[in-house]
Structure formats: structure tokens, C-alpha cells
Amino acid sequence: MPHHSKASSGSQHCCDKLLDSLRLLLPNVTRFQSQETCALYVPGMNRFAHVYHRGKEAVVRVYFRGEISVPISEPTGSVVIQRREKVEKGWDKEFPFFASISTDESVSALAKLLVAVAYPLSEKKRKGFPTSELADSTLVADIKTIISDKTADPTTVQALVNARVGQGKFGLAVRELWNYRCSVTGSSTKVALEASHIKSWADSNDAQRLDPNNGLLLTANLHKLFDAGLISFDDSGKMLVSSKLSESEQEIFGLIGKKLSKKPSVETANYLSYHRTKFLE
Q: Does 117 lie in the same domain as 27?
């Protein structure tokens, strides 16, 4: 595989065009040109795609991150997504999908797919946060909706994408707001903590989606229970537990007598008031 500078002009154009298309969605995307590949990443995160030039051909092959268990819908724009024949471990497992691109239309379509599928994985891979929620089909659908909004400026698009996967400025602000500890248990085990929206993503406007007061830092099990409406909190921070959870289940999850580690701010209390409308008494 030739270095970018030694590839054909057509191949260089595809690589450059892909970088430009990505930067319309993620302004901070950077390209690192090594001897055999052009790696694409956002500073501070892991690489989410690798571009390989194909000799003198006016085409590039792009390998990208993906979850084997999560189906990838074919994007528009004449892009054919393929999966490696053997995905066992290491690099092959982390970058199991690839596509060949040669036209501006295919480049643009692939850029949107990379932001929706590969970039969120690179964020979680880098920071050590759980990736289980990536299997949630609504995550990919929501990100595709964000990047298809032609009225939003690139900076807002990037912030919303980051917020949807519980990271970026939103996730960091929520962690800081709760002193990097679970809002209920006080746990500081980073890999077990998730930034959760109080008023759900689907029900929030863009400002609310980025507002750290609309967030709790919860362990993964509490996050799931909270999103399902099986637990909530009153204005003082006392945990409310749904009658749908038996006493034995409440004991298993350690819910009895729990409360938030501090009294909610006025802004957070307003969001909690909305969440209680979804609470399953």
C-alpha cells in the first residue's frame, strides 16, 4: 500500500475529500499519514477509521470500527459495506468493516456513516466507558438524524453527536457536576458510570440535550432502571421505586432507602419533575 503522497491523484482526492466531508460533521477530525495508512481520529480519542490507497487506482479502501452484533444499514451514495471474512481478535475485530470509495457521492455517504457508527465507538473505546448502549438501535438512528440536519452548524452537530453517546462536553460536564462519582452510590469506578439524560433525548430540544443540569451520573444498572421509569427522584433527591420491582429485586439492586448524593439544583429538579411523569408507579 503506497503512502498518501505517492498514491494516484484520484486516490489522494478521495482521501482528501473524505477528510473534508468528515470535518463538516466533526470539525476536529485529524488525519495521520503513516507509511501504509491514513488514520482518522479526533484528538484525545482513538482512531475510528483507516484509509488505504490502492496503488495507482483512483480508489481508496476504508476500514472502520463497528460492533459485529449491530447490523449496519447500507448508506445511500453507492457505498457497499463489507465485513471481513474472519474477525477473531485484535485489529481485525476492532475494525471489522470496510468500504471502497471512488466518487464524491460515495465519499459523502461514507463520511456520514463513519460519524454515526465508527466515531461513537472510538470515543467509548478511548475513555473506557461501557459500549453496551451502542447496541441500542435508537442510538444510531438518533445520530443519523443529527447529521442529516442541514440547518445545524458543524459545531452544534459535533456537540449533539457527543452528547448522544453520553460524552463530549455534556458527559464531561455531568461528571464534573457530580464530582466524578455516581449520583446515588458514590462509586468512582469510571468504566461503570454513564452520563444519563433526565429528560430523555427524544423528548428534549437541542439546548436541553446539551444541558448538564439535565444529567445524572449513574452506574449502568441504575441508568437502565432510570431510563425504564422504574426509579426516579423527588425534588429533595429521595429515590422513588416503582411497585413493578419486587422487594427482592429492590434489594438485589440496592435501591431501598437511597437518595441522590446532594439536593438537586432548581434546574435539575425541573427536569426530574418531567421524569416523574414517565415514572411507573
A: yes
